[in-house]
Amino acid sequence: GQTIGILGGGQLGRMLAVAASRLGLHVHVYEPGAGCPAAEVATRTFTAAYDDTAALTEFAQSVDVVTYEFENIPTAALDVIEALRPIRPGRRALATSQDRLTEKAFLRDLGLATAPFANVESAEDMAAAVDEIGAPAILKTRRMGYDGKGQARLKTTDDAADALAAMNGAPAILEGFVVFSHEVSVIGARGLDGAVACFDPGENVHEDGILRTTTVPARLTASQRTDAVLLAARILTALDYVGVLGVELFVTETGLIVNEIAPRVHNSGHWTQNGCQIDQFEQHIRAVAGWPLGDGSRHSDVVMENLIGADMDRVPEIAKSGAALHLYGKAEVKPGRKMGHVNRIVQGS
Ligand code: ATP
Ligand code: MG
Ligand code: MG
């Protein structure tokens, strides 16, 4: 059978590997860190750095197609792989989403609503950005940020200097603070044949910058739900995308505003494992393997809760409750570390 290569061996890589294995596919994982969550599930694991050209070459030659569980893969590593095997989703999606400025400009040029934003690479840029956008606002590093890391909030324009200092010289964007009632996300998929399928939008609650829960169905009107799905489809098509993509949205009085996109399976899509016949992980593997997309319609109402750090103490009690537990097999519990999640079916439909 086919062999799928996955860059990154964290929990997303692990759950992708499980899905691929269920489809009878082999999985080779490439991950610099030893003892990663995906290694236990993979057929073969390459433990090597992203600048190890020989290891990258051997990895690429050992698989039929390469996908990834995170978007911050160094460009040089992608160049080595792309010369040998297809990368899905493609380079365009990666280049767009690796940099918040490129991403926001792409979304704006598609005609989608975003927070007002401005590029900040110097004190002069910052002054101009604050003039234009005002406060409250959020300064975010353009690259590498996740779980709210690399962000500084400006309550008033007086916070500008401190916020800029917190970037440590890294290029950033200043975003106007969006007043929203709640946050939702759409997990969309596009096949090699161009077919698009979206999962039902989920409603997300964050705590300390980290996703805490996703609830489906989200509180959305019928037209908001349609809008969310259509805008995700537009993003997928514009990027000539193959695979699963997460789109984070703010729900406001003036409509849906796109916060960010992630060119991969997404934490806010974990509910699909127990709420749909075909979950986001199988959908992604189907797409990158060139299979037809599956039926991702939602059959149950679900609340997904992340198990973060010391939440692991509650696992015996959760296990007794009979809810669907998904643990990532991480040896060490750390504060803020995603250790697993639980999907509770609230109501079958
Ligand atoms: P992730 O782990 O989702 O990749 P991240 O580090 O990329 O997170 P964002 O999604 O940009 O960070 O921001 C984290 C959270 O901060 C958002 O989910 C939202 O609650 C809040 N937030 C971000 N940008 C804005 C904004 N412009 N206005 C209001 N709230 C915002
Ligand atoms: Mg992000
Ligand atoms: Mg986010």
TrEMBL record:
Entry annotated with the keyword 4Fe-4S: no
SUPFAM superfamilies: Glutathione synthetase ATP-binding domain-like, PreATP-grasp domain, Rudiment single hybrid motif
Known pathway: Purine metabolism; IMP biosynthesis via de novo pathway; 5-amino-1-(5-phospho-D-ribosyl)imidazole-4-carboxylate from 5-amino-1-(5-phospho-D-ribosyl)imidazole (N5-CAIR route): step 1/2
Catalytic reaction(s) noted: 5-amino-1-(5-phospho-beta-D-ribosyl)imidazole + hydrogencarbonate + ATP = 5-carboxyamino-1-(5-phospho-D-ribosyl)imidazole + ADP + phosphate + 2 H(+)
Residues noted as binding ATP in the record, renumbered to the chain: 100, 140, 145-151, 175-178, 183, 206, 259-260
InterPro entries from the UniProt entry: ATP-grasp, ATP-grasp_carboxylate-amine, ATP_grasp_subdomain_1, PreATP-grasp_dom_sf, PurK, PurK_C, PurT/PurK_preATP-grasp, Rudment_hybrid_motif
Domain ATP-grasp: 104-289
GO BP of this protein: 'de novo' IMP biosynthetic process
PROSITE patterns: ATP_GRASP
EC number: 6.3.4.18
Keywords from the UniProt entry: ATP-binding, Ligase, Nucleotide-binding, Purine biosynthesis
One Gene Ontology CC term in the entry: cytosol
Annotated GO MF terms: 5-(carboxyamino)imidazole ribonucleotide synthase activity; ATP binding; metal ion binding; phosphoribosylaminoimidazole carboxylase activity
Family note: Belongs to the PurK/PurT family.
Protein's job: Catalyzes the ATP-dependent conversion of 5-aminoimidazole ribonucleotide (AIR) and HCO(3)- to N5-carboxyaminoimidazole ribonucleotide (N5-CAIR). Catalyzes the ATP-dependent conversion of 5-aminoimidazole ribonucleotide (AIR) and HCO(3)(-) to N5-carboxyaminoimidazole ribonucleotide (N5-CAIR).
Complex formation: Homodimer.
Protein name: N5-carboxyaminoimidazole ribonucleotide synthase
Organism: Flavimaricola marinus
Protein encoded by which gene: purK
